[in-house]
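Person: At home tonight, work slowly through the protein below, taking as long as you need, and write a paragraph about the fold.
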Amino acid sequence: MISKRQFRIKAREQRLALARDVPDFASLIVAFAPTLEVPDGACVGSYFALPDEADAGPLAVVLAGNSGKISYPRVAAKASPLEFHLPVAGEAMIRSAFGVLEPRADWPRARPSVLLVPLLAFDAKGYRLGYGGGFYDRTLAALRTRGQVTAIGVAFAGQLVGQVPTDANDQKLDMVVTELGVRRFG
């Protein structure tokens, strides 16, 4: 089996090609929102997609509905779980050291019950390959110790691989939504 580092390199190349092939990805996955069975009023943890990443933004809006909220992650410390915050009207997100948009530390904190998770690859067992920092694995572990959270990977269908290299810290997803549908994991 190849190392996670080597796997990430290949997965990034694959995802870049998929992003070009499915430019309407974000609008396609919205159609699957009802099958995700997110309760009204849920706090949805989302993210701002990188240029070649599967965009979860429109799906998060639909999942939150009229009475729910959308929260966004912020890296508070390198070896800690992500912290989620609610946006503040009229205030802009900031660019993190990782180059992604994130909320400011002084914005209201949130605890999502549904977490939309970016990834480089996923397998049929529900494991995902992230970017190597372990942020989402630590976050899912922390949220799961405090109660129920539904982890939904957001990916292009072509990001499915035979097996993702895993270790003891890797957290499984509950499901993945792609432009072709929803895949649930037991």
About this structure: The chain has one domain: 4-184. The longest helix spans residues 4-21. Helices lie at 4-21, 25-30, 57-64, 135-145.
